């Protein structure tokens, strides 16, 4: 792989990563435009409103310097109309770009190879697959929504060094320190929606917002799985529903008082056990353009996602403390009938936040 191509594509991927959780149903695309003399003359990512796309932002910045230049794009330029402006493939052609380097194809059936084909037909040189693996990881939520009709699911858990998530009494103390909790807030801003179960909602009365200064407006859609509509009207989620969108998924009729408070109540058919089927929840979210879902519902809900095979990433915080004398088991309590049925994950990174450790895992199958 050409080192210059790799360097500029990493730049574009860094730009795209800044838009995760902010661009709605549209994927966050990064674009870097490099003049023949090696100068970066334009760069950008998809706007928080979903339009303009990263290519349009970078082309506007480059202006006349785009002619004869090379564009590095993290996702195949779109070939379909949507919103204001022409498809990105057409905009690149009109700019006089000489070469386009693409990290990965666009799985959206409205494009899916047509963008690259259109560029080639216009005589533009195309290089594909530069840092494809990194781009696929970045766009995993969008890819899953296009191919499997569900969002990417990230499980966030905090546990003690001996594997417990909270004291047995259920008073849910802070296990991790302030630095780790601040990063947890950033994770919220990087996802389109955040989901918890009703037991967590009742025990903790959380707000589920991003409270990092400057990122407050990126608080995700808040979702509670509440089969029997037990969430109280005085809960923080209900009281703030008009400020931060909130959804309750239930199997029951009713919920008029919750709706009157600004909560969206979505009724779903119960599964054989009378519970809400996770597949139905994920498909509903995919239909609303949710690409990335963060699950913070504790060990029980995390295990349900693990057993169902819907967990794509794990963000596991571990604090240097012991709760062995009175704790509730974490995700390590997952049981499977046979060894080959156990979910498989690969650790992709390890970070430290003060005395706490964060291990990030990605599903391998």
Question: How would you characterize this protein structure?
Answer:
With 365 residues, the protein is an alpha/beta fold. The chain is built from twelve helices and 16 strands. The protein has helices at residues 3-17, 54-62, 88-95, 114-121, 132-138, 140-148, 178-189, 198-204, 236-239, 256-260, 278-287, 298-308; strands at 30-34, 40-45, 70-73, 99-102, 125-128, 152-160, 164-167, 193-197, 221-225, 246-250, 264-267, 292-295, 313-319, 327-329, 345-353, 356-363. The strands form three sheets. It has a nine-stranded mixed beta sheet, sandwiched between helices. Strands 2-1-3-4-5 form a five-stranded mixed beta sheet, sandwiched between helices. Helix 4 links the parallel strand 4 and strand 5. Helix 3 runs parallel beside helix 4. The protein is globular. The chain starts with a helix and ends with a strand. The mean pLDDT is 91.
Helix/strand class: alpha/beta
**Poorly predicted residue ranges:** none
Largest sheet: 9 strands, mixed
Molecular shape: globular
The proportion of strand residues reads 15-25%
Strand order in space, largest sheet:
11-10-9-8-12-6-13-16-15
Number of strands: 16
What is the straight-line distance between the termini?
A: 27 Å
- Our Rg estimate from Cα atoms comes to 22 Å
Average of per-residue pLDDT values: 91
Fraction in helix: 25-40%
- The succession of helices and strands, N to C, reads HEEHEHEHEHHEEHEHEHEHEHEHEEEE
How many individual helices?
12
